[in-house]
Amino acid sequence: MAAKILIVGEVTNGALRKTSLEVLTAGRAVAEKTGGELAGVLIGQGLDGAAGNWAAHGVDVKQIDDASYAGYSSEGYTEALTRLVQEQSFNIVLFADTSMGKDLAPALAVRTDAALATDVVEMEVGDDGYLRVVHPIFTGKVNAEFVLQNKGVQVATLRPHTYPAATENGSAGNVEKLAYAVQKPPRAVVQEFVSTSGGKVELTEADIVVSGGRSLKSEENFAIIEALADALGGAVGASRAAVDAGYQPHSRQVGQTGKVVNPTLYVACGISGAIQHLVGMRTSKVIVAINKDANAPIFQNADYGIVGDLFEVVPILTEECKALLGKE
Amino acid sequence: KIRIAGDEKDIVRDGIKYVMNPYDEYAVEQALVTKEKVGGDSSVTVVSLGPARVVETLRTALAMGADRAVHLSDDAFEGQDVLATARALSAALRAESFEVVFAGKMAIDDNASTVATAVAEMLDLPHVNMIQAFELADDASRATVRRRVDGGEEVIECALPALFTCEKGLNEPRYASLTGIMKAKKKPVETKSAADLDLGAEQVGAAGSGTLQMRVMALPERGTCKFIEGEAREAARELVQLLRNEAKVI
Ligand SMILES: Cc1cc2nc3c(=O)[nH]c(=O)nc-3n(C[C@H](O)[C@H](O)[C@H](O)COP(=O)(O)OP(=O)(O)OC[C@H]3O[C@@H](n4cnc5c(N)ncnc54)[C@H](O)[C@@H]3O)c2cc1C
Ligand SMILES: Nc1ncnc2c1ncn2[C@@H]1O[C@H](COP(=O)(O)O)[C@@H](O)[C@H]1O
Predict the structure, then answer these.
(1) ipTM of this predicted complex?
(2) DSSP letter assigned to residue A214
(3) From ligand 1's centre to the CA of B79, what distance in Å?
(4) Of A110, A146, A325, the CB nearest to B211
(5) Which atom of ligand 2 is the closest one to the Cα of B72?
(6) Predicted local distance difference test score (pLDDT) of residue B26
(7) What is the 3-state secondary structure of A115-169?
(8) What is chain A's mean pLDDT, rounded?
(9) pTM for this one?
């Protein structure tokens, strides 16, 4: 059976999320290997801009755009995706492993009787057309390899940053509007959405994360971490010790009981590198550690290290980054 | 420290002390709080699928205050994927009457974050994942819950019956008291096999699974750390150059 691949995109505040471009890279690789067809789907309201942007990256976009999808609804979105997969006989569906992807993928898999893999950090399609994936288990302390098989449909969610974002490749795709609307009234309804991002890039989506630990000693001192993050265009993370001490909100905690991040650059400032922290960041492409203790375990998991006092090193590093990147 | 078995099929299990999944502790606690709020003849049933050792975990939940337990136990469940587990759990739940199902957001062994949502789908229940607050309406017809998602926080109203998965921050799970532990010994633990759940051979185990775990692998090793020496200004300058020209990440 020829592969028909559907990638599920996401839109925040009218803009296409970057994870949608990563899933496009993944979907395109599967399409090339299998000689299959690829399309993307966006669900929501007021999606023209995002759909056009995605299509400009060379993918045909199914735009499910209706007032009944204005707010996120697990049931409403699952219903729409199930209908699309069944009507158009898609047999591979790829999500980003985001709040939405985590929520929808298992539900879609049940409704389409699919094989499912979540939080995938490596993926390949075999000659038999079945996906082989790597998924971290035991909260990231080891990896496991899985093969999807036996089912007519395969569903996977891909950890952000596992694939590079697709770039515009010259040939734009088509946008097709589908006249779907929510059929069955959802029983769970979002009453209120409070944005907590303050316009900043989501921690799990940021290309660069600068994190601080207990050693920062206060909430105010985290300003030096913020400054470095700003200079690099990155997001701020924290160790659990820093969160428990009240220096940072839990939404910024990296690790086993916080978020798993996978950026291209992770800068750990005054973080010892406990296993529970490492499992939240060790897949980062490049890790920099700044710590006054040369024997801190973080250095065993870092690519570049500076042994020194972060209160001295980090502000200077910020200046040097600004100088290089031409930012003030 | 987790070690990988010689045949790479699993981790080395000898000497491991098994505990209740921490996210399931929040689920048990929330069920108990809800029962206490509703009062009357409301009760809490805990259900788990797994080998004989999960009975201990069920006892822990009974000691915390749950009323009865159901253990789904069958050699035929071995090697099955999370969706097959969800199928068996949903079959077990069909035999129960309930208004709310609480589960964990994720099992810290398989890290799938799948089973609970899949159970909800199989039972045609609405679900809300990763809740951090749960408020039951006075007439118990609905619940208002709060959860953190990418970029913000959602407040969701959900009609019951429904399934919720629990995230850290929802509550503080109680410890089992000594009397709780004594009482738990007398509480009923029912065992159900695949046949009791009307599950055929093609619905359980590897045959009933679309996703098979092939092997367990150590994490890829990182090369050794390049230490940048020298005075802070020089070191910072060199680091920035390396990140730009060698690592090409800024
Ligand atoms: C079940 C469980 C779950 C957990 N989950 C998480 C999790 O999700 N995330 C997490 O991060 N942790 C988690 N932890 C905690 C983890 O074990 C560590 O305690 C925590 O990561 C330590 O944080 P830290 O590195 O900031 O502090 P510490 O371990 O105290 O390290 C501070 C470091 O800063 C260095 N330092 C001090 N002053 C300076 C200075 N002026 N300049 C440079 N360096 C300096 C020190 O040399 C030291 O290495 C968990 C623990 C458990 C048991
Ligand atoms: N074998 C099982 N028995 C009972 N509940 C389970 C089982 N596996 C998973 N669950 C529930 O589903 C949640 C998510 O698990 P998972 O999808 O495996 O990450 C867990 O926190 C449990 O509440």
Answers:
(1) 0.94
(2) G
(3) 37
(4) A146
(5) 3
(6) 98
(7) EEEEEECEEEECCCCCEEEEEEECCCCEEEEEEECCCCCEEEEECCCCCCCCCCC
(8) 96
(9) 0.94
